[in-house]
Design brief:
Layout: E1 14-18, E2 28-29, H1 30-33, H2 37-48, E3 53-58, E4 62-64, E5 69-70, H3 85-95, E6 103-105, H4 109-118, H5 132-144
Parallel strand pairs: 1-3, 1-6
Antiparallel strand pairs: 2-5, 3-4
Helix pairs in contact: 2-5, 3-4
């Protein structure tokens, strides 16, 4: 997906957003666990797309529903104990969501790579953004229903 591809002509069946390194210090719903500004920006942009299903890709747990209650953890994507593409595919297959389309993934390169291993056709509106500032600008544009800025 290029920066100017519009997302307003379709309703995603699935949006996958990243977890975050900043977390609450006690068990909580996945929707509440991640408190960092990047995760929150991804969540607001995802909500604005009105998907049929919104999932969080946790580095430790894989695909999480917003209501799943989890313990705090400290596992970044790419770590030895992080979720693998094989585990993610097994989770998606078990949920019966492998064939969903369109799918949108918001997040960085490691996140997108994992999502793409299950949904090769995934749309990635943050791809090509150089740095956090440009990603946050694109997330704001998605949240506000504006055309994605050229970067």
């Amino acid at each position: 997906m290029t920066a100017n591809d519009h997302l307003d002509y379709f309703k995603p069946q699935l949006v996958v957003i990243p977890c975050g390194s900043r977390k609450l210090g006690l068990p909580a719903r996945a929707a509440d666990m991640y408190v960092g500004s990047y995760h929150r920006a991804c969540r607001k942009a995802a909500d604005a797309l009105h998907p049929d299903l919104l999932l969080i890709l946790s580095a430790r747990h894989g695909l999480l529903d917003l209501d799943d209650v989890i313990e705090p953890y400290d596992t970044p994507h790419g770590a030895a104990d992080a979720v693998t593409s094989q585990v993610l595919l097994e989770q998606a297959t078990g949920r019966g969501i492998v064939d969903l389309d369109p799918v949108v993934a918001l997040g960085g390169a490691r996140h997108i790579s994992l999502v793409r291993s299950v949904w090769p056709h995934v749309r990635t509106p943050l791809a090509g953004a150089r740095g956090m500032g440009q990603q946050m600008a694109r997330l704001a544009a998605l949240r506000e229903g504006r055309e994605l800025p050229l970067m």
